Please model this.
Amino acid sequence: MREVSVRMIHFVRDLARVSGVDESALFEGLASVLPVAGVEPDWIDWNDFIEVLERFERISGGPEGVGRAMRAAAPIAYPELRAFASVFVLPIPAFRFVMTKLMRTNYRHIAIETIEELGGDRIRWTQSIPEPHRASEAFHRGTVSLVEIFPRHLDLAEARVESAIITAREASFVVQFPVVEPLSTRSARAVSSAASVLAVQLDHAFSTIIETLRGRPEGPLRGDGQTPNAPGANGAPKEVHDWAERLALSPRQREVFALLVEGRANKDIAAALRCSERNVEFHVGRILRAARVSSRAELLVKVLGARA
Model:
């Protein structure tokens, strides 16, 4: 049952690197996790993913070791979450978005009950692993550390998990998020809501701006995925190749990077490279981490600024 985005394996690899855990010990014998003919899968088996999580918990020293690894990996893992700092004002709207939207892009089956706001920046929710999928307390225990450090992506203090009732199949949590000052709750929530709507349009808008500034002709993609007269990945300027060398990008990441710095949207990059949009998203995330930036806009400013 291929239910888990390979993005989550990238996350586990980050945890392994910062904690010194041998990746081969985590992935040995798990066929769905490994590339086939050099091509990384989009989705992996839920059972394999749970096996990786439980192996990591054992090797790293239990739930406390997992928590230490997650805190150490926070500066490099999930760059898309750090980008939320410029979109969301309060942690609860950001957390709600992650649990109800992003969770569904990473897991096809995890059930999240309605997130209930208890007042005083406290929330309660229940998450469950439906039958017939393999149940796992390790999966739910990992959620505790993820929730605690979540506000750090917004440059806030950690959250406090007031209660966590965990079984292999289901877990219920009550969490206290840090209070954000000096904005009032009402105005902050209004700003956060409006910004989250605008964020959906940022990728396309930024791509259009870059294309206009460069004077690249607008128009439909050709059959090969290229825009008329637009430079392709293999025709990237020398400065782009130099940046790719500096960031130690893989061959596929270099192709994505060359198109990314042209201001291409993910769907256009996917068409040009004849791969899925999800694969492009994964590669973009790893490029952002390598460049130590939190958004594609920041990456473009950094690269184009160096070329100016």
User: Anything to note?
Assistant: Confidence is low (pLDDT under 50) at residues 196-235. The first strand starts at residue 2 and ends at 5. The chain has three domains: 1-76, 78-200, 201-307.
